[in-house]
Amino acid sequence: MIEEKNMSAAKNLEILFQDEHYVAINKPHGLLVHRSKIATNTDEFAVQQLRDQLGQHVHPAHRLDRKTSGVLLFALSKEALTAIRATFENEEMEKRYWSILRGYTEPEGLIDYPLTNDKGKNQEAQTAYTTLNQTEVEVPFGKHPTSRYSWVEARPKTGRMHQLRKHFAHIFHPIIGDRPHGCNKQNKLFLDRWQMGTMLLHAVALRFIHPITKTEISISAQPQSEFIRMIDVLKFDKNLLA
Predict the structure, then answer these.
(1) What is the DSSP code (8-state) at residue 60?
(2) What pTM was estimated for this model as a whole?
(3) Is-catalytic flag, 65?
């Protein structure tokens, strides 16, 4: 199915965790976290939706790209926001992502490659990854009689903008559905053959020490239906979803 511009209007957001200080949702593909000057084709935003759903103000603690799904954390007060942002900034937040990439990746690796921010400044950036599963499907691509893909778990050690997208492109295993860092020919293949137009990147888990209660918090989110459909279509091992 082609990604819908508004996937959120029909039902409430899925709440994964909530206490008096924080709330986490499973953000759908295609939903912006908040209003943006570069996205004027929607009036649906996670901040406003969650505020209306809970009946109180919420403050995003971090960001996920519009086409990335998964765990998105909000603070319920400005004090809680300041506390949790320190956790992110001090790199004390364990983040795990699932993604489907072009080609066969190494069993595991560390991508240590500086990235340039929107102000032109170089920033160090590191992403560790583990290959969960690989598949080869009988779909010709270019000079190859088949197509190969990897399902990986990524653990970014830093939090730079588009870090995973840029890092996997850097090692020549771009994320399927990514624009502009991905492979346009692969993206067209997925759109033409399987009517799949979203980016196959999912924030599967966050783990951290609650900055107020000092307890360990572990939050996980099942992938959205389109990610699961592609796991099935590409014949990955679906048992890994459990």
Answers:
(1) E
(2) 0.92
(3) yes
